[in-house]
Amino acid sequence: MNPIQFRDLNESQVLALAITAEEEDAHIYRDFANWLKADFPTDAELFNRMAGEEDGHRRQLLDSYHQRYGEHVPLIRRQEVKGFFVRRSSWLTRTLQPERARKEAAMMEIEARRFYQSAAQRAGDPGLREILVGLASEEQRHELLVEAITEEQAASGDLGRQHEAAARFFVLRFVQPGLAGLMDGSVSTLAPLFAAAFATFSTSATFKVGLAASVGSGISMGFAEALSDDGKLSGRGAPWLRGTICGLMTALGGLGHTLPFLFRDFHFATSIAFLVVAVELAIISWIRKRYMDTRLLSAVFQVVVGGVLVFLAGWLIGAG
To answer: Residue 195's domain spans which residues?
Structure first.
C-alpha cells in the first residue's frame, strides 16, 4: 500500500495518528529508561517521567476522539503517512549513551511539536484545535526540559561522570574482548603459520594452514569469551556481542599475516607477512596504551617479546 499524504487525512484520521504516535513515543522512552536504569538512574528517571506525560497526552487525545467520533479508533501508523516523521525501532538504540539518548529525545519532541502545530492549523473544530495547540506547547516544554537537565548535569559534574562511566563501559564491552581477540589471533597463529612456511616453503600450503588456524582460533575465542561471563554482575554487556567481537578480531589478527601467502613468490610473501606482523603488534601496543593505561614502552616490550617467542617456536619447529 502506498503511503497517504498527510494533507489528505481528515480530522479523525489525524487524531488517530496522534494517538498511535504518543503510544509509540511512550514505549520508546520506557525502553530508554529500562536500558539506562542500572548505570544512569538520573536519565532513567527523566525518560520514565516523559513516558508518563506521553501517556497523559494519549489519554487526552483518546477522550477527544471518543467524544467526537465514537469508541473505535482506527490504527494509523507513522510509516503509512508520507512525509510524517518515522522513529527508529527502540531496540536499535540500545547502545546509545545517555547524552545521545537525550539528543534523540529532544529531536522526537521537536518533530512531535511540528506535527501538532501543522495539525492545529488544519483543524476546523475549535475544541480540537485548542487541544492540539496545547500539546504542541507541551512538546516544546519537553524540549526545554531535556536541555535544562543536560545543562544541570553538566554544571553539577554528573555529565562528566556519565562520560567517564560510558568510557569504562566501552572498554569493558568492546575494547577488552576485541583486544584479547586481536592479541590471540596476531600472536598465537604465528607458530603454525611460520612452522608450515619453513617446513614446506610452499605459499599455498602455508596459506591453508594460516587460514585454518585463524578461523579455528576465531571460533574458539568467540565461544570462550561468550561463555566466560554473562555480563550481569561485571557490566561487560551481552555475551553474544562480546563473543562476536572477540571471535572476529581473533580471525582478523590471524588473517592479516596469512593473506600475503596468496602471492606465489615465497620470499616476497614471507617479507610482506613480517611487515604485517610488525604493524599488528604496533596496533596492539597502541590500543594497550590508549585504553589500558599501559606505558607505551612497556606495552611494546610485552607484545613484541611474546610475538618473537611464538615466531621462534614456529620457525624452530618448521625448520627442524
So the answer is: 175-319
